[in-house]
Amino acid sequence: MSELLVDLKAFLQSSPTPYHAVKAMAKRLDVAGYQYLDEADSWALSEGGRYYTVRNGSSIIAWCLPKAKSVIESGFRMVGAHTDSPCLKVKPQPEIHKHDYQQLGVEVYGGVLLNPWFDRDLSMAGRVSYLDVDRRRKQALVNFQKPVAVLPSLAIHLDRDANTSRTINAQTHLPVILAQGKHAGDFKSILSQQLIKEGVADVAEILDYEISLYDTQEPSIVGLADEFIASARLDNLLSCFMGLNALLNADSDEGVLLVCNDHEEVGSMSAAGAQGPMLSQVIERLVPAVEDRVRMLNRSMLISADNAHGVHPNFSDKHDANHGPLLNAGPVIKINANQRYASNSETSGLFKDLAQQVGVPVQSFVVRSDMGCGSTIGPITAAELGVKTLDIGVPQFAMHSIRELAGVQDVDSLIKVLEAFYKEKYV
């Protein structure tokens, strides 16, 4: 197994929530010599400097300023992705006791494919706000790591239509089993005990939390020839990983930037989402004068990286016959006439040229004309900044399932093209 895939598996396994993903990315940026900038502080930036900032613990922006010219002359080569994935989140008052079982009520986050969540070994992770022993408000990340919850299926003997017409009620069918009896205590007590186990010794009172359930099965390389990677949260931690690797690998003379936003799966409308002001505020601090900023953005481009639907051999009729991306056949340019994707002929042409230069094949995806089309942070960011934009991604199966599948060759391929983009002089 290549070192790249080893790193990818470790990143996916260490990132059960957006908070953990940003923490893992920040650690790699620290090692690479990037300087953390707190949004609440004044920023002193230098030519060729490497920096990053974090908002809400779940969104991150990293950038390098050009070495030999102003960023106004250079512009930014920007890559965007998102840190969140569809999942089940624990409710604020989740305790349910039925027939001697202790359960947790959950809320559906994003467009979850619900059936695969049944009969999995589930754990919990997220962020906790608490008071310490001196009654100071603090936050900490928590990750139970081991399986602590399960959502058993109903036996087919009791549901004879399970294979033909089963539907899932998110309110009544999804509470997970946490324990038998009432010995586990209330949920905040469980969190407090887990934080202490993880070395957070000053917890006096849990104030609130944002906790997600996740599958404990580790990422795997599968296929007779090791062609695929199977994991949770490939949409869209895979793009975060590829964008970060390209950023760290590219030794560019131009301005380069990586933005990974939270909340894409629920519309991006938040302070840390792509429809919020985080990226525009960072750019305003880098180029305060309006005219200079407009000139800089005119010399800039954004590549929005979010996985694409590979053509499933058992369901090929769900694709346009001429636009069915194959796994391990190269990154996919995503096109939609109604601007659900922000690609246009100029931005896709640049990407195709860069891909040819590094020997990477390119595919195209257009949704069937009689089906609805999803969207990405691409059109949102393009509208917020007024920057030309391209939507791309690597093809995958089982998008929004608890376990997804992508091609290992596509990971290396897209990193190569993104590196070339970061180095490109004219965009």
Automatic annotation (TrEMBL):
<dbReference type="InterPro" id="IPR001948">
    <property type="entry name" value="Peptidase_M18"/>
</dbReference>
<keyword id="KW-0645">Protease</keyword>
<dbReference type="GO" id="GO:0004177">
    <property type="term" value="F:aminopeptidase activity"/>
</dbReference>
<dbReference type="InterPro" id="IPR023358">
    <property type="entry name" value="Peptidase_M18_dom2"/>
</dbReference>
<keyword id="KW-0862">Zinc</keyword>
<keyword id="KW-0031">Aminopeptidase</keyword>
<keyword id="KW-0482">Metalloprotease</keyword>
<dbReference type="Pfam" id="PF02127">
    <property type="entry name" value="Peptidase_M18"/>
</dbReference>
<keyword id="KW-0479">Metal-binding</keyword>
<protein>
    <recommendedName>
        <fullName>M18 family aminopeptidase</fullName>
        <ecNumber>3.4.11.-</ecNumber>
    </recommendedName>
</protein>
<comment type="similarity">
    <text>Belongs to the peptidase M18 family.</text>
</comment>
<keyword id="KW-0378">Hydrolase</keyword>
